[in-house]
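Good morning,

Both structures are done.
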Amino acid sequence: MGATVTTANNEEKTWGGGNEPLAASYGKLMMWFFIVSDALTFSGFLAAYGFSRFKFIDTWPLADEVFTHFPFMHGVSAPMYYVALMTFILIFSSVTMVLAVDAGHHLNKAKVAFYMFLTIIGGLIFVGSQAWEWKNFIHGEYGAIETKGGSVIQFVDKDEKVKNPFQTSWGVSTRLIGGLIMMHSDDKGLVLPPKIAPIQIVIVPIANTKDDKAFIEAIKIKDILSQNFSVKLDDRVDLRPGEKYYEWEKKGVPIRIDIGPKDIEKKQCILTRRDTGEKEICELDNIEEYTKKLLDKIQYNLYNLALERREKTNTKADNWEEFKTKIQNGGYVFAHFCGDKECEKKMKDEIKVVSRCLPFETEAEDGEHYCIHCGKKSPTNKRWVFAKSY
């Protein structure tokens, strides 16, 4: 009896299925399948992340506020613990998936079912963890974007209790620093209010060496004042006192304390105010109380000077021509306004002016009032604050 042998051509070997399509083993094909599919999947995730991050840049959650929480452990700082757990679950699910594929290759149905079950459970836990994170740590009671109480950020105090901070839309920025410089400073340099000055007091001993009595006494003064104030001892003995004075004046330190050999003989020191330049003599035994009172005086003086300057530049306008004239002179102009965005846009296009706010403490005026620009009836009997936009 004869036998007929049929040899498949190359095309049939390649595309006809069988045990080795593309002349590759089953294991290699599955390996490449997972590599390509994972690459495409994570590329899609990265692209979606990039577009979302760009689109929602103003409301994107802060990582420090999201990744420091752990379920049912609120108030305990656990940086990245939950992320590490979710990463482990994801890797575990990937491993069980590979094991299920390997079991299928060996035609072991029981192991395939077992490993697929573990893969599904791991996947559900991972997706559930993502949902928990979103609900509680991004849009929940401990959220980084919006909490149930309307807060945006929460913090853990020294007693390990979660609290809401006092918030404001007026964040500290370069504009605020610029306003501080323009309001208080002079031709000599900065003038800083004591409550925000990084250095409140600088001590300048009149000494040639660090062994001089004036230098030793300056250290004692620093030790006393440092308990309640921010104090700097200028311990440079290679510079003349005048050079030191100029430097600290330029930096805006509220009080400079000078002490030399003659001052020690008289048991006193000299305090110089940065805001007025006045010099005051203080007994060494009374240095702490005297300095505290002087800092309060400087703070009060700078506040009143700023308030007086602001009030001088605040004006009122009752018609458009008057408004245009006063706004060109600088400062704030108080006027009635309809509140319409289109009306404000026209005002901005015409004279670069915008509304700043509608103050709560402004006194209400009797009668009906009309918009300074368009003439529409104002919805409130209070004046809005306007200023030029630069």
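Second structure follows.
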Amino acid sequence: MKKTLLLSIFGTFLFVQTALFGQVTTVNPILFVNQTSYNLEQNSPNPFQMNTKIGFYLPVAQFAELKLFSISGIEVTTLTNGEMAAGQHQINFSNYSYNLPSGVYYYTLKAGDFIETKLMTIGR
């Protein structure tokens, strides 16, 4: 019997997965990570064709803005813009609405004095 353990992090939780012959048999959260600082996650999947998710963490409730830009710096869209609760957030981006061409784009999160930018790739 081949049994495999896999640890994975999603947001602020650490999960352990048990697999038997490649089939996942259990998924259990084992630890809550107490996050105290801002965090902008890499979008997933990346690269993507039509849909991707962007996660970020705010340590306090505040105004937050997440924008998507072309590689040349032209604003494509605002993904979120307003007061947000403290904690983990996830934004779903669908290229169905924009039909953007393949290429590299970047997204920027601004919240308080925090500013961070990450790259993402749309493929066909």
